[in-house]
Recover the amino acids of this structure.
């Protein structure tokens, strides 16, 4: 992975010290609430608030309900107008009532998918971490081992049940791959869950006991019937919708007739080879491509040779 490619990955930028050693600080929640310099980031169902200048909007400790789940995100590593280096950041998971008190206009609460590319590196790191952890807490209120209710501990990074079992956040690895043929066309597929004219790279989750490279080969053949040569790693970025790490590759289809590409008919309903001219002429019109926050868009633009003037 080149530094230039990594810098273009929308949700992989970060300027934050996660400060893991302080997550186990005794009575950490009180320490954070009592420190007037702590910045609290309200998170409501994965949505956040922004200021007029586009920066994340923080609130004071007294605006955060006592029963809100707090997630210690870490410390700033550089000075910014709203927070000097060393400032501690906390995500506060708020319910409907608390969110309405903080900001009653529901339209102001925004999803990270929509504005992720507009944030600074620090705010991107905070937002991605907060959303990923919020999603994990939302589905781990009960122990998968005992069925007992769990409680948040260690700065929000562990959930513990009454029997003492500890449960830690997990990330699902998924591969995504830009495949080209002998004419340097790129293979894109349309998912059954999307609009019929929306296309993206082929992708899929890594199965247990499988390497990333084997997952690339398997997913491409399963979804499009295409056999590829040795895949090459490009880069990765978190995709907390709800809990994935997208690992990007590029690969070449083996010699043969590329017209044999065919969709699996279940998950993928169409696959097409696109030339650069076809992308330039059709993208945004008859063909919809992935949004700017996705690694898929970056890989497509890497193949295309520059940015596409699309949302």
């Amino acid at each position: 992975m080149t530094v230039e490619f990594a810098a273009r990955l929308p949700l992989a930028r970060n300027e934050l010290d996660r400060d893991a050693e302080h997550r186990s600080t005794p009575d950490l929640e009180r320490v954070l609430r009592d420190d007037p310099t702590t910045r609290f980031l309200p998170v409501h169902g994965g949505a956040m608030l922004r200021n007029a200048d586009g920066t994340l909007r923080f609130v004071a400790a007294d605006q955060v309900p006592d029963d809100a789940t707090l997630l210690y995100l870490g410390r700033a590593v550089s000075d910014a107008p709203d927070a000097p280096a060393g400032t501690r950041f906390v995500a506060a998971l708020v319910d409907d009532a608390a969110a309405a008190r903080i900001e009653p206009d529901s339209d102001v609460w925004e999803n990270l998918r929509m504005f992720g590319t507009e944030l600074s590196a620090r705010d991107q790191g905070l937002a991605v971490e907060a959303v990923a952890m919020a999603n994990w807490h939302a589905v781990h209120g009960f122990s998968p081992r005992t069925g007992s209710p769990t409680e948040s501990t260690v700065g929000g990074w562990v959930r513990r049940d009454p029997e003492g079992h500890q449960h830690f956040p997990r990330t699902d690895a998924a591969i995504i791959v830009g495949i080209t043929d002998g004419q340097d066309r790129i293979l894109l597929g349309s998912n059954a869950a999307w609009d019929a004219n929306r296309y993206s790279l082929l992708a899929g989750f890594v199965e247990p006991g499988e390497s990333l490279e084997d997952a690339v080969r398997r997913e491409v053949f399963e979804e499009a019937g295409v056999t590829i040569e040795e895949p090459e790693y490009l880069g990765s970025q978190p995709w907390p919708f709800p809990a994935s790490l997208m690992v990007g590759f590029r690969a070449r289809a083996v010699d043969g007739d590329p017209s044999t590409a065919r969709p699996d008919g279940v998950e993928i309903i169409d696959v097409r080879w696109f030339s650069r001219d076809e992308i330039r002429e059709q993208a945004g019109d008859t063909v919809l491509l992935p949004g700017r926050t996705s690694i898929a868009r970056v890989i497509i633009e890497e193949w295309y040779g520059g940015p596409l003037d699309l949302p």
Remarks:
- Residues 121-138 form the longest helix (18 residues).
- The two ends are 25 Å apart (CA to CA).
- The mean pLDDT is 94.
